[in-house]
Design goal:
The chain is built from three helices and no strands. It is mainly alpha-helical. It is rod-shaped and about 125 Å long.
Length: about 80
């Protein structure tokens, strides 16, 4: 009985259809396992830059008040 079974198993396992179906089923199960175990990584928290007061507005105010000398009234 075992002598008759081995050629049949060899014929089934070497069949192209069986091999392709086995590969497709393995890939499908692997994908389903990946989706079931998937956890999205949290986004990294970006620190916002603190904007300091620029010294440029202070320099503009000083020149507008008469820092030039030519626009200042003479006493």
């Amino acid at each position: 009985m075992l002598g008759q079974l081995i050629p049949v198993l060899k014929g089934v396992l070497t069949n192209k259809t069986v091999i392709i179906c086995t590969i497709v089923v393995f890939m499908y199960v692997n994908f389903v396992w990946f989706v079931a175990r998937y956890h999205k990584k949290p986004r990294p928290v970006k620190a916002k830059k603190v904007v300091t007061a620029a010294p440029a507005p202070a320099a503009e105010n000083a020149s507008a008040e008469g820092g030039d000398g030519a626009a200042a009234p003479a006493e």
